[in-house]
Amino acid sequence: MTQHLNRRGFLRGGLALGCSAAAFPLISHATFAAAPFDHRLIVVILRGAMDGLDVIRPVGDRNFRQLRPELGQGEGPALDNFWQLHPGLSGLMPLWQAGELGFVQAVSTPYRDQRSHFDGQDMLEAGTAMDSPPEFRRDGWMNRLLAGLPGARSETAFAVGREALPILSGPAPAQRWAPETEMRVSPQARRLLEQLYEADPPFHSAAGTALELTEMLNDLEPMDPAGESEAMMAPPPMMGLPEPEKANAEVSAFAAFAAARLREDTRIVALSLAGWDTHAGQDNAIRRPLARLEQLILELKAGLGPVWNKTAFIAMTEFGRTVRQNGTKGTDHGTGGAMITAGGAIRGGRVLGQWPGLGDSDLYAGRDLTPTGDVRAVAAWVIHGLMGIDKGALQNGVFPGLDMGTNPGIV
């Protein structure tokens, strides 16, 4: 029987050539881009609404324990006489002591009252206000940042999982890759692939990118903690692993690849970590995402070697969680939350932000931590410090309608 092969047939039957449609840059969860400056920026979206009051605990506020009598009782390391770190991040304390870890409390996007994960994440990644023009709401703020950098070019990317990253959507090109995808293509199959897509420039470019990424992975030489180059081990096989082990393997694969690229031409990275929606049994539920976040930061630091000193890492979430614990020893969707910063380029060892208090009259809508700062302003000041981008461009082009306020000196 004669088999006719066209583009659709190839995408449906890609496994016959040892690759899958997932290898093509159609879905993004993390993106890398080269840029004309020497510092590195890593942005992590913490999907599900991280409870900032549990991660960076205001134990010095006399109302805190009364509002959460059965939640967050495990003692964590003291950051100072007011703040306590969740014990699940205790492995980051050497960074705090070295001034390479910091936090910002009582921040949020302009999103208010509806408390929808989808809408909150859309606004977080678009970098807009409630009344921003529609043309800004269609693009992600990181894509607008890339589009405005003279000489910046999209380089390489991959997805950890299958989710999209709206923070990167827009006219600036972005390429994607999933770490569990294997591209084992023979020379003959590669020639067939190139001929198949010759007359279709978008597909020809996508296929070429997927093959180049495969070759690049074989050539990567990450840095070990001692600063010496060593051959990269292949990402651990993920199919068939239990979910916790699979999640850890994904984080390790991403950190190794990201560090290798950031040591070269890549300057900007975005990704997301899920699992922060802790409506019930929060004491146990929050430990897994905290472990992944700690793992990511520590493996990035180890893999980056000296480049860590030029790196700023910021983690942000769509909104915070309720101040009071609920009946299932969890927390519900709230407003004010926290951000995490790390890297040798930041001025850490501090908890920034204006603390609003936890008294009844201090709470937003009688239930939430009142936001006193904007997550967009934090990101904008980091970008300003790293890249020297003009405040006007950040407030009008990257984060439309933002008032950056006073420089908090994060970088």
Automatic annotation (TrEMBL):
InterPro entries: DUF1501 (IPR010869), TAT_signal (IPR006311)
Swiss-Prot/TrEMBL keywords: Signal
Pfam families: DUF1501
Residues making up the signal peptide according to the UniProt record: 1-30
Membrane as UniProt keyword: no
Keyword Methyltransferase (UniProt): no
UniProt protein name: Uncharacterized conserved protein, DUF1501 family
Species annotation: Gemmobacter megaterium
